[in-house]
Amino acid sequence: MTARLLGAARLVMLAASAALAAADAHAACPIQLAVYGETKSGAEIDFTPTGTSATITNSFRMILDNNTVLDGIAMWTEGSASRPHGSLMYKCPTGDVTGEELAACTVWEGVIYSEDEKGGVGLLPAEGVDAPKSLIFPDLGPSLQMSAAYGPAGFSNVPWDVFTLKGCQE
Fold it and tell me: What is the DSSP letter of 66?
């Protein structure tokens, strides 16, 4: 009987160790590999490494229903109140585009906020920093609902403003 209890205790310890390792791996995910989800609509955000851009600090894409994909970037503003200014774009032209063309395909713009495990609100971190628990895109839903991406040719489930960390890409 003692051997059985010892075996069961080892199994419990192994399961606890595996859960702790998974939690540590989840917490140690750098923002450039983070995957976030929004529960109401099922929308996801997948971050990707930005590369060598001098102005773009974060790159990501938002995947909505009906395989609608929005391209996202964040650029930190300069000055005493610098902030990560985010933009989501839908079907933007590539190559040498004008400011007017870029404005026409931008479906959301604003500061991207983050929330940590303790409920503290901050700003979207730059690449190389651990991914925060949640991201907040103020007024995302209403902006997307007014965009060309919404409707019969695009998505129909409007996401809310808060996305929660789901995992880390390999």
Answer: G
| Sites in the chain below the pLDDT cut of 70 | 1-27
Pair 164, 133: CB distance under 8 Å = yes
Q: CA-CA distance, 4 to 91, in Å (whole number)?
A: 62
Side-by-side strand order, sheet with 106-111: 106-111, 84-89, 68-76, 58-64, 44-48, 34-37, 162-168, 134-136, 113-115, 121-123
For residue 25, what pLDDT is reported?
A: 40
What Rg value do the Cα atoms of the chain yield, rounded? 20
Count other C-beta atoms under 10 Å from residue 155's C-beta.
24
| Domain boundaries along the sequence of the chain | 30-168
> Tell me, what's the pLDDT at 23?
43
Place of tokens 């790159």: 59
